[in-house]
Write a structure and sequence with these properties.
heterodimer, A: 691 residues, alpha+beta, PH-domain like, Methane Monooxygenase Hydroxylase, Chain G, domain 1, eight-stranded mixed β-sheet, flat, B: 226 residues, six-stranded mixed β-sheet, 7 helices, 6 strands, binds guanosine-5'-diphosphate, binds magnesium ion
Chain lengths: 691, 226
């Protein structure tokens, strides 16, 4: 039914008029019927439309996914090509460890010792970052070879690796993309044979000659070149594990026997020697054998390496560090004899792993949300400090926060008024610094050395901030008022840092000093220019505001500026005794002073002071000139009034404001008063002539 | 990044396996092998027929000679009800010296076939140890698990009665199934039943409200003998 209607409606020759015409013939019932049909059709269409959109969308997603997979494969391919090139190059060279590794096992102890040195030296030379592996005494190379690592889930090839089987562990190294001298590989991981589970993987499809290594929490899958190579790996792994376990057992037994023996000997000694007390007791330095015994007999100690692995994998960092501290405490009483050193190496290996994981927590990487949460960072830092890595932790912590600040600032849009942007910039920046400071104190309590690092960091951040600030404020052609407002904002925010005990205002002033000084000079000069310019056009006429309202508005404006005695300079409801020049000057000067005081700091004090005085002096000079001028003889009374206004109203007001900010009285006001007196007396002379 | 996900997934163990499975499904194109992988581990003492069961299931063949396994893993595509999935079987060796090594095997399993031979009382006794170790490692009472009495074709040499095996299964709240790797009786059944349990648990774990309700109802379980 719906279909039929859809067909009619979608015909190319469909004529709505005819259709409706025909419909309306049928009467109400037909129309109602049709309405239902149309409605249903519209619903069906909507559903179909949705489906289509979804279908296309999922197709799009699938395509995107496929592309990313292809991309990955291309990358792998190029990687493999590079590797192949590397192999070609090395084919020419003879491997230091040839194929005679297997019989090395049968050779006498001493020879093994020699070989050990050689083999491990070879490791150091070929594998980057494996020095901790080679440090373990008695460790030697048993077997090594190229393997291809595979994804244990998908069986896809991942990368080429080189595996080194040592007598007590299996080391995996990745190929360096570019060879650096003899160094061909980079150390990746070391698995101890003790708990290493090896699984043969039956061939299936393209996956041939593979085997797996299970070492909680890792599952690694490797592919050997051919069945023989795989067989060899499995057999040697099996054999080495057996040897290791046999050796461990043997040592344990020997140690147990030694304990027994010692007990017997001491007891017999006590019994048989009645003079025992007279003799000096043996220095309580336990022999290597007893040490080993004790070590091997403490169960928790033996389980610690594996417990550490689990704790690290489960991200129980506190637990891991607890364990490490416990072991450290336990071991510190023992001299570093061989078995202790061996055990120590196993623990140190895990400390290194743990440190790496913790450092990663603090690393700011683009994939991870930058606000990874201060708690996570604090946690990592706390554990790193316990591990004695506070400088690294401190460094990473601060780097992390630098990235955060940078990110937050980048989130700010540069649009709208400069002051608005700067206000937000200051807010973001200084509150970030405060936050970091607070976090820092929580994370590094009592680490005063680190605290100086924080101060240095804050200063560097401030430098960056000033750079951004400068581009927006100093380099732009903004009015000085705006600039002053921004500088004020920055200084004010910076001052608030003293809440967390951070005094950076001095540093901020130093960083902005040059720019601000230049602008003070420039603006001051500009004002003096303006005074001269207005003076040339001064006609010495009172201003007529035409009506009382306008005069009132003027009075209000002056009041607003702080000139509260303005009413004594107005008369006749619409007049003021002040000239346009005086009014314009006063307004400009008051604003100028306000702005200057916003940027006032000790280093600009003198500049600002002389700018204040110079500008007002320039204006007074103009008045003095007018008094002696031939043109304005008739206006003397009026001229004196203007001078009086400047000296008795404007000057004290500016002085008050100046004192409030700078703490000093404005100097050289005496000169201005002198100038006023001169004007008065000059005027008197001429006025006297008239009287 | 990838290894990190892998690590998390493994850490969560079988309990949350399904979330990882769906993650797999998202990231792989359909043209490849089915993304869902159920990981089964064969446990039990040596000689009970773990390898024989595995080989029968994998390749439809019965191996007469007894060859102690090291540890083999197998992978196969199978049709689990309406869904194409992969089964990953780890056939373990009984004789690892270190418990830590066995732990490493068990940690990567999502379900377990705990096999004993009905002709050997001792092998039945050691199932308890295996069960215990698995529960310790997986830390989950509801880990998919089947108690399997193998070699049911050797009825005349039976040392373990159906009743005592069933009693133990009930105590553990798991199913008991008897099999023969030789005649292929119930071989598919144990693997498919276990996969269904694994799947059910993955689904339950994926649901946000997987509280007490999510746990499987274990009532009405019966021993199946053909
Ligand atoms: N009659 C019979 N023999 C079996 C059965 N399953 C295994 N076997 C035999 O038992 C021996 C040990 O089996 P195997 O699978 O290697 O045991 P595993 O050690 O558990 O892997 C082999 O000789 C097998 O042929 C079975 O169901 N019936
Ligand atoms: Mg076997």
């Amino acid at each position: 039914m719906g279909d039929g209607l859809a067909r009619i409606l979608s015909k190319p020759e469909f004529k709505p008029e005819n259709f409706v015409n025909r419909l309306s013939l049928g009467g109400e019932e037909d129309l109602e019927d049709m309405r239902h049909k149309v409605q249903r059709l519209s619903e069906e269409t909507a559903v179909a439309l949705k489906k289509n959109v979804y279908k296309n969308y999922s197709q799009f997603i699938e395509t995107a996914r496929e592309i990313s997979i292809l991309e990955g494969e291309m990358y792998q391919l190029s990687h493999m090509l590079t590797d192949q090139k590397g192999i070609m190059n090395t084919l020419m060279e003879l491997s230091l460890t040839g194929d005679n590794v297997e019989d090395a096992e049968e050779v006498e102890e001493e020879v093994v010792e020699e070989d050990t040195l050689k083999s491990l030296a070879f490791l150091l030379e070929k594998v980057e970052g494996c020095s901790s592996v080679t440090e373990v005494p008695d460790r030697h190379l048993v077997h090594n070879g190229d393997l291809v690592e595979m994804d244990p889930e998908t069986f896809l090839q991942l990368q080429k690796v080189h595996a080194f089987l040592l007598n007590d562990s299996l080391m995996i190294a990745t190929w360096l993309p570019y060879r650096r001298g003899p160094v061909k590989y980079r150390f990746q991981t070391l698995y101890e044979l003790d708990s290493l589970a090896v699984v043969n993987v039956r061939d299936v499809g393209n996956c041939k000659n593979a085997f797996k290594i299970l070492m909680f929490p890792d599952t690694r899958m490797f592919q050997a070149e051919n069945p023989k190579a795989k067989r060899q790996w499995l057999d040697i792994l099996e054999e080495s594990k057996k040897k290791k376990s046999a050796l461990d057992k043997q040592r344990k037994q020997a140690a147990a026997a030694a304990i027994q023996e010692q007990r017997v000997s001491t007891s017999s000694f006590d019994d048989s020697n009645p003079f025992a007390e007279e003799e000096e007791p043996e220095p309580a330095r336990p022999s290597s054998v007893t040490l080993e015994t004790e070590l091997l007999h403490v169960e928790w100690l033996q389980e610690t390496p594996e417990d550490l692995d689990v704790a690290i994998a489960q991200r129980d960092f506190e637990g891991a560090v607890d364990l490490i501290e416990k072991v450290n405490e336990y071991l510190q009483n023992y001299p570093r004899v061989l078995p202790v050193r061996e055990y120590r190496a196993r623990i140190d290996h895990r400390i290194k792993q743990l440190t790496e994981v913790l450092m990663q927590e603090l690393q700011s990487s683009p994939e991870r949300s930058i606000r990874g949460g201060p708690r996570a960072a604090r946690r990592a830092v706390a554990q790193l400090i316990r591990l004695g890595k506070s400088p690294q932790a401190c460094d990473l912590f601060l780097k992390n926060h630098s990235a955060m600040i940078k990110y937050n600032i980048r989130q700010l849009k540069i649009e709208g008024a400069t002051t608005l942007y700067i206000r937000r910039l200051c807010e973001v920046f200084f509150s970030s610094i405060t936050e970091t400071g607070q976090e820092f104190m929580k994370a590094f309590p009592e680490h005063f050395a680190c605290f100086s690092a924080f101060v240095v960091w804050a200063r560097e951040e401030l430098q960056a901030f000033v750079k951004t600030f400068g581009t927006q404020v100093f380099q732009s052609k903004t009015r000085f008022s705006t600039i002053a407002e921004c500088v004020y904002e920055a200084r004010h925010s910076c001052h608030l840092l003293s809440d967390i005990g951070l005094e950076l205002l001095f540093a901020l002033d130093r960083m902005m000093e040059k720019d601000v000084a230049r602008l003070i000079q420039q603006t001051g000069d500009h004002q003096v220019e303006a005074v001269k310019h207005r003076a040339a056009e001064d006609l010495w006429r009172p201003v007529n505001f035409q009506n009382a309202d306008s005069l009132k508005a003027f009075e209000d404006e002056m009041n607003e500026l702080g000139l509260t005695d303005i009413h004594s300079y107005t008369y006749d409801k619409v007049f003021t005794a002040l000239t346009t020049n005086t009014i314009q000057f006063t307004k400009a000067y008051m604003i100028f002073c306000e702005d200057m005081l916003k940027v006032h700091c000790s280093s600009h004090h003198h500049m600002i002071t002389s700018a204040f005085v110079d500008i007002l002096t320039a204006q007074m000079k103009h008045i003095e000139k007018s008094v002696v001028s031939e043109h304005f003889k008739k206006e003397h009374k009026f001229v004196v009034q203007n001078a009086q206004f400047l000296v008795e109203s404007v000057l004290p007001l500016v002085d008050r404001k100046y004192t409030a900010v700078s703490g000093h009285k404005l100097p050289e006001t005496g000169d201005l008063c002198e100038s006023f007196k001169r004007i008065q007396s000059l005027a008197k002379v001429t006025l006297g002539e008239f009287v | 990044m990838f290894s990190c996900l892998n690590l998390r997934r493994r850490l969560r163990g079988g309990r949350q396996g399904s979330s990882s499975a769906s993650w797999d499904a998202m990231s792989k194109p359909k043209t490849q092998a089915p993304a869902v992988i159920h990981k089964v581990i064969m446990v039990g003492s040596g000689g009970v027929g773990k390898s024989a069961l595995t080989l029968q299931f994998m390749y439809d063949e019965f191996v007469e000679d007894y060859e102690p396994t090291k540890a083999d893993s197998y992978r196969k595509k199978v049709q689990l009800d309406a869904e194409e999935v992969q089964i990953d079987i780890l056939d373990t060796a009984g004789q690892e010296d270190y418990a830590a090594i066995r732990d490493n095997y068990f940690r990567c399993g999502e379900g377990f076939l705990c096999v004993f031979s009905i002709t050997e009382q001792e092998s039945f006794q050691s199932t308890s140890e295996f069960r215990e170790q698995i529960l310790r490692v997986k830390n989950d009472e509801n880990i998919p698990f089947l108690l399997v009495g193998n070699k049911m074709d050797l009825e005349e040499r039976r040392q373990v009665t159906v009743e005592e095996a069933q009693a133990r299964a009930q105590e553990w709240n798991v199913s008991y199934v008897e099999t023969s790797a030789k005649t292929r009786a119930n071989v598919d059944k144990v693997f498919y039943d276990l996969m269904r349990e694994i799947r059910a648990q993955k689904v339950a774990a994926a649901k946000p409200d997987n509280d007490k309700k999510g746990k499987k109802k274990k009532s009405g379980r019966k021993c199946v003998i053909l």
